[in-house]
Structures are given as structure tokens and as C-alpha cells.
UniProtKB/TrEMBL annotation:
<dbReference type="Pfam" id="PF00984">
    <property type="entry name" value="UDPG_MGDP_dh"/>
</dbReference>
<dbReference type="InterPro" id="IPR008927">
    <property type="entry name" value="6-PGluconate_DH-like_C_sf"/>
</dbReference>
<dbReference type="GO" id="GO:0000271">
    <property type="term" value="P:polysaccharide biosynthetic process"/>
</dbReference>
<dbReference type="InterPro" id="IPR028359">
    <property type="entry name" value="UDP_ManNAc/GlcNAc_DH"/>
</dbReference>
<protein>
    <submittedName>
        <fullName>Unannotated protein</fullName>
    </submittedName>
</protein>
<dbReference type="GO" id="GO:0051287">
    <property type="term" value="F:NAD binding"/>
</dbReference>
<dbReference type="GO" id="GO:0016628">
    <property type="term" value="F:oxidoreductase activity, acting on the CH-CH group of donors, NAD or NADP as acceptor"/>
</dbReference>
<dbReference type="InterPro" id="IPR001732">
    <property type="entry name" value="UDP-Glc/GDP-Man_DH_N"/>
</dbReference>
<feature type="domain" description="UDP-glucose/GDP-mannose dehydrogenase C-terminal">
    <location>
        <begin position="314"/>
        <end position="406"/>
    </location>
</feature>
<dbReference type="Pfam" id="PF03720">
    <property type="entry name" value="UDPG_MGDP_dh_C"/>
</dbReference>
<dbReference type="Pfam" id="PF03721">
    <property type="entry name" value="UDPG_MGDP_dh_N"/>
</dbReference>
<dbReference type="InterPro" id="IPR036220">
    <property type="entry name" value="UDP-Glc/GDP-Man_DH_C_sf"/>
</dbReference>
<dbReference type="InterPro" id="IPR014026">
    <property type="entry name" value="UDP-Glc/GDP-Man_DH_dimer"/>
</dbReference>
<keyword id="KW-0560">Oxidoreductase</keyword>
<dbReference type="InterPro" id="IPR014027">
    <property type="entry name" value="UDP-Glc/GDP-Man_DH_C"/>
</dbReference>
<dbReference type="InterPro" id="IPR017476">
    <property type="entry name" value="UDP-Glc/GDP-Man"/>
</dbReference>
<dbReference type="GO" id="GO:0016616">
    <property type="term" value="F:oxidoreductase activity, acting on the CH-OH group of donors, NAD or NADP as acceptor"/>
</dbReference>
Length: 414
């Protein structure tokens, strides 16, 4: 058996390595030459995949940008980005391009599985017609399934092997083929009745988080006006052993899923004459959090007789989540842009992000950065950063992640 993976990013490369480590021949397809050159040299561009892991599959892995190589695969899994357009509508360009590439060399009996997050109906209505341009019929001549990725970058307790895998097939036979494939790398398979059910399952998972994060963010803003410590409230509520799940406020959502996926479903719902007001309101609240955080920065400086313009502001942690260097949709990017527009002299420290090229900045040493700033702002709380030292060394610290103690004369929390 040979498994092809189209798209070698945060989803595709770990999946390829998982199959390769089971001794299965794998073909990695990507259009990025730097990515392919690095992989051929044994260098990983993904934090969760080490050079040692790449070396372990060297005997079974092939890296290519030739569509013809996909025709030699028994199964091809699509793991390309599904971003939003400038109008916050689904951009299926990468997904449809991948389907067109596969269709060029699709062979009878082959299986195509989509892992990219998308709205219900995409696989059946958008991908299948492209694949059938090969002259073959989906579900008869070749199998089609949808199995959403469940990758959480930086996490080690849940892996490809022990994370339950949702699978939905175009037909019962397609489902059987797909579950057999994934059983080689996943211990717990969760079959559902259709690709649409699998597509919506993925969106529900992320919208659940988005809505609850928006709720606690809105309460954080209300608690600020009421002069109540939201972190004390969250800690107290979390002692309830049933009927409550802990969510924490923060500067906004980042990454490749949470800021994007709710808008996919909201867009799709409009095609069914329905407005998903609850989902869209959550997105609106979360998108506004960086603006609120910048307002908190201005208030913190103002309380010390300083204006934003000309003040030295140090951002501590800028990636979208703790423990990774991923900058996709990171709230720090919007916070940084807004502060620069307000005239702040910006610097940052992040052990996972050596440079922020769009701002012409490089990460500074924590000690020197803290000593030189007027205000330190903890945006992302990396586990290896000494946040107590930030509070002790900076004139004042604004903690957007709740990792420092209660408000004091030296610090305040969101």
C-alpha cells in the first residue's frame, strides 16, 4: 500500500509520518519548493515533527511536486488550507486546486479522503464533480470520504494514535475503505453516516469553543466595568463538579481553526435561508478582543501619566497559543498593529518566534526587554517564560492570560 498526502503543513506532515512509522509507503505532495527541499534534506518545518521522526521514515517516504506520483497511490488524503476570503467567506481555492491535481491522475479503485475543515456539502458538491472530471464515477470507480483533522499543535498527550477519528464515506463501501485505512494509525474510529455529518462534526467542535470563549470574554469586559476579578469568578465557578466547563478570557482567538471555522458554517447557513446569529455574534466578540486589550494598554499607561504615543511597550509572547511558534491569526498581530498605529515604541519577547517581519522586529532578551519598557503586556503565556520575573522587573505588567497573581500596584489581569 502507498498513501499520498496532499499538503504538508501542520495537518498533512504529522499524518504522513504516522503512516510512515507503521511501515507504509508514503508520498508527500506539496507545491512549496522550500518545504520539499527541507524535507528531502531531513529538515522539518513543523514544530511537532522532529528531524529524528523524518529520519525514521526515510526508507518509505517520497517527497514530490509531480501530480503523476499521486496516481501511484492507493489512497490520497487532502490536507490543504481552507482560509477565508477578504469578505470572510470560504476560500475553497486550495481545496479545489488539490482536487483538480488528483483528478489528472486518478486511477480506478483509488480512494480520496479530505481532512481540510470545510462546510457541510463541500465534499459531495464541490470536490466530487472535480474528481469525476476524470471520467470515472465516485462511489463506484473510486472511493471518497471525509475525515476531519483533530490536530492541536504543541500537544503531546493526544496523538494521532489515541485521538478518536471521525470518518464519513460517500457510500457504505467508501466508509469501509476509509475506516480500514485510518485503523492503521488510529485506535478509535468513529464512523458517521455521511461526509456532511463528518464536516458538521468538525465545525461543531470548534464553534463550541468559539462561543464559550466569546461568552467568557464578554463577561471579562463586564467584570472590568464592575470592578470584579473575572479570574476569581472563573476559578470559583470551576469548582462545580457538574454542568460547568472552564473557559478562560484572553486577547482573542488564533490558529488555523477557531477564527475561521464558524464563518464557514455561517456562510453555508445563509444558503438555507437561515442566519446563525449566535455563531456570528461569538465571532464578532472574539474579533473585538484585541481592540479591548489595546484600550486596557492605554488605560494602564494613562494611570501612570503616560500616553500610548512614545511609550515603550513590550509584548511577552506573540504566537497564537502557548508552547508553539505558530503565528496564524495570532491576536498579537492585531494588538501590535494597533499599538504601532497609536505611536507606541514596540518590542517583544517570544522564545518560539525569532522575528516579526511585518513589523521589522526581532525577539529581545526578556531581562533587557523588561528593563527597557514602560509597560509589559503578557499576550501569550509560554510555559518556559518566567512571568513572575516580568512583573518584578517591569514598571507595570498587563496580564491578558491570567498567569500572574491578583491585581497589585505592579500588575493587572484582563
Amino acid at each position: 500500500m502507498r498513501v499520498g498526502i496532499v499538503g504538508l503543513g501542520y495537518v498533512g506532515l504529522p499524518l504522513l509520518v504516522a503512516f510512515g512509522q507503521e511501515g507504509i509507503d508514503v508520498t508527500g505532495f506539496d507545491v512549496s519548493q522550500p518545504v520539499l527541499e527541507g524535507l528531502r534534506a531531513g529538515r522539518s518545518h513543523i514544530e511537532d515533527i522532529s528531524a529524528e521522526q523524518l529520519a525514521s521514515i526515510a526508507g518509505v517516504a517520497k517527497w514530490t511536486d509531480s501530480p503523476a506520483d499521486l496516481g501511484d497511490c492507493d489512497a490520497v488524503i487532502v490536507c490543504v488550507p481552507t482560509p477565508l476570503s477578504g469578505n470572510r467567506e470560504p476560500d475553497l481555492g486550495p481545496l479545489e486546486s488539490a482536487a483538480g491535481t488528483i483528478a489528472l491522475h486518478l486511477t480506478k479503485g483509488q480512494m480520496v479522503v479530505v481532512e481540510s475543515t470545510t462546510y457541510p456539502g463541500t465534499t459531495r458538491e464541490r470536490l466530487v464533480p472535480i474528481l469525476e472530471s476524470s471520467g470515472m464515477t465516485a462511489g463506484t470507480d473510486f472511493a471518497v470520504a471525509y475525515s476531519p483533522e483533530r490536530v492541536d499543535p504543541g500537544r503531546t498527550d493526544f496523538t494521532m494514535r489515541n485521538t478518536p477519528k471521525i470518518v464519513g464515506g460517500l457510500t457504505d463501501a467508501c466508509l469501509a475503505r476509509a475506516t480500514e485505512l485510518y485503523s492503521k494509525v488510529c485506535d478509535n474510529l468513529v464512523p458517521v453516516s455521511s461526509p456532511e455529518a463528518a464536516e458538521l462534526t468538525k465545525l461543531l467542535e470548534n464553534i463550541f469553543r468559539s462561543v464559550n470563549i466569546a461568552l467568557v470574554n464578554e463577561l471579562a469586559m463586564l467584570a472590568d466595568r464592575m470592578d470584579i476579578d473575572i479570574w476569581e469568578v472563573v476559578d470559583a465557578a470551576a469548582t462545580k463538579p457538574y454542568g460547568f466547563m472552564r473557559f478562560e478570557p484572553g486577547p482573542g482567538m488564533g490558529g488555523h481553526c477557531l477564527p475561521v471555522d464558524p464563518f464557514y458554517l455561517a456562510w453555508r447557513a445563509r444558503q438555507f435561508d437561515m442566519s446563525t446569529e449566535f455563531i456570528e455574534l461569538a465571532g464578532k466578540v472574539n474579533q473585538q478582543m484585541p481592540y479591548y486589550c489595546v484600550d486596557r494598554v492605554a488605560r494602564a499607561l494613562n494611570d501612570r501619566g503616560l500616553a500610548v504615543r512614545g511609550s515603550k511597550v513590550l509584548l511577552v509572547g506573540v504566537s497564537y497559543k502557548a508552547g508553539v511558534g505558530d503565528m496564524r491569526e495570532a491576536p498579537a498581530l492585531k494588538i501590535a498593529r494597533l499599538l504601532v498605529e497609536e505611536g507606541a515604541e514596540l518590542s517583544y519577547h517570544d522564545p518560539m518566534v525569532p522575528s516579526m517581519d511585518r513589523f521589522g522586529l526581532e525577539s529581545v532578551e526578556l531581562e533587557s526587554g523588561v528593563a527597557a519598557c514602560d509597560l509589559a503586556v503578557i499576550v501569550t503565556a509560554h510555559p518556559d517564560v518566567d512571568h513572575d520575573a516580568v512583573v518584578a522587573g517591569a514598571p507595570f505588567t498587563l496580564d491578558l492570560r491570567g498567569v500572574t497573581g491578583p491585581d497589585s500596584d505592579r500588575s493587572a489581569r484582563l
